[in-house]
Design goal:
CATH class of the largest domain: Alpha Beta
Largest sheet: 7 strands, mixed
Helix content: 25-40%
CATH topology of the largest domain: Aspartate Aminotransferase, domain 2
Number of domains: 2
Shape: globular
Number of strands: 14
Radius of gyration: 21 Å
Number of helices: 9
Distance between the termini: 45 Å
Order of helices and strands: HEHEHEEEEEEEHEEHHEEHHEH
Bound molecules: pyridoxal-5'-phosphate
């Protein structure tokens, strides 16, 4: 593991250099343009995304895209907490995407690149206008390092270390385009901002945040772990390699889904299928006849069997999603393990059916 600078002030030279190194490696590995700022901020992805929403929204109309629970969470923030005027929520059920063509170029747009709880992702950013007047806010938590992000189309991008990097949770990464910085410097939101959301001082961006001078005390243990994860990504060949690993994992699982008669991908449109948080629905007619509570109980039996056998942990669908399975196929997973998993899934389904 990278040398964890524990028990030190994060403002001392060595810890500060480590935080700056983490920012530089993130930029290099993700191919973030030099003109974009990258900051390490409090409270994981949620902290990063909400500090951007609270600091920047309200000056333009807003379109929120919501097709699973995290997008719905940002929609709740926009409508019920921030109570934004002229805010549209473009929603779609689990497994589908809303009509991306509905997004207004003059509006700020809020969306998750990869919907972790439904396994539906945007296929690209072609639906975002290059000459848009609004800003795009992209929650890339389960997309970063596994899917290609189109930086030119993205103004605010956030993610956390515990997903595709396989790191310890703690801090959010907040990436800002020059236009996002312009917004921060030119707009004073009509609401109080807690200290951990404040990115400007006297109308100017607090540049220190984007050099590793964090707003408050970071976990240097989590920082060392994140550097370790980035080290590993660098060693295996960078972004191309992590994307290829996720793709291979997804393919191995989907090939099994395609030849198995009791299960389908929750997402019908192949171009919208996630290669990280792959969500599956059970299509067996006997399962389909059960009510939702009985379906959830069935999935629980399956996941308990898999857990007890040590074959898979935590692969039940998210609590807000339709009953089913969710298999993490991110880069830290070995394709051979996905291949080993699939017979266990068949076994758990057959055993839960007869128990
Ligand atoms: C798409 C998405 N957004 C937000 C979050 C919340 O992230 P955090 O727990 O890092 O705040 C998650 C967590 O899984 C996520 O997948």
């Amino acid at each position: 593991m990278a040398h964890a600078l524990l028990g030190r002030s994060h403002r001392a030279a060595e810890p500060k250099a480590q935080l700056a190194d983490l920012i530089a490696r993130t930029r290099r590995l993700l191919g973030v343009p030099e003109t974009y700022r990258i900051g390490i901020v409090p409270a994981s992805d949620t902290g990063a995304f909400e500090m951007a929403m609270w600091s920047m929204l309200g000056v333009r109309p807003v379109d929120v895209l919501a097709w699973e629970s995290f997008g719905q969470g940002w929609a709740t923030d926009a409508t019920k907490q921030l109570e934004l005027d002229d805010c549209r929520v473009l929603a779609a059920p689990y497994g589908e995407l809303p009509d991306l063509g509905e997004v207004r170029p003059e509006a700020d747009v809020i969306f998750t690149w990869n919907g972790t709880t439904s396994g539906a992702r945007v296929p690209d950013a072609d639906w975002i206008a290059a000459d848009r007047q609004g800003l795009t806010f992209c929650d890339a938590t389960s997309a970063a390092f596994s899917q290609r992000l189109d930086w030119e189309k993205l103004d605010v991008v956030t993610f956390s270390w515990q997903k595709a990097m396989g790191g310890e949770a703690a801090h959010g990464m907040l990436i800002l385009s020059p236009r996002a910085v312009e917004r921060l410097e030119g707009y004073v939101p009509p609401r109080p901002l807690p200290k951990i959301f404040r990115m400007t001082k006297g109308g100017k961006l607090n540049e220190g945040i984007f050099r590793g001078e964090t707003i408050n005390t970071p976990s240097m243990l989590a920082v060392a772990d994140a550097i370790d994860a980035l080290d590993w990504i660098e060693r295996i060949g960078g972004l191309e390699a992590t994307i290829a690993r996720s793709e291979a994992n997804f393919r191995a699982l989907q090939e099994w889904v395609d030849r198995t008669d009791w299960v389908e991908n929750l997402v019908t449109e192949p171009a919208h299928r996630s290669n990280t948080s792959v969500c599956l629905r059970i299509t067996d007619p006997d399962f389909a006849r059960l009510d939702e509570a009985a379906q959830r109980a069935f999935v629980k039996r399956m996941t308990a069997l898999l857990d007890e056998a040590g074959a898979a942990h935590d692969i039940g669908a998210h609590r807000d999603a339709p009953p089913g399975l969710r298999v993490w196929c991110g880069a830290t997973v070995e394709t051979a393990d996905i291949e080993r998993l699939t017979p266990w899934l068949d076994w758990a389904f057959a055993t839960a059916t007869t128990s």
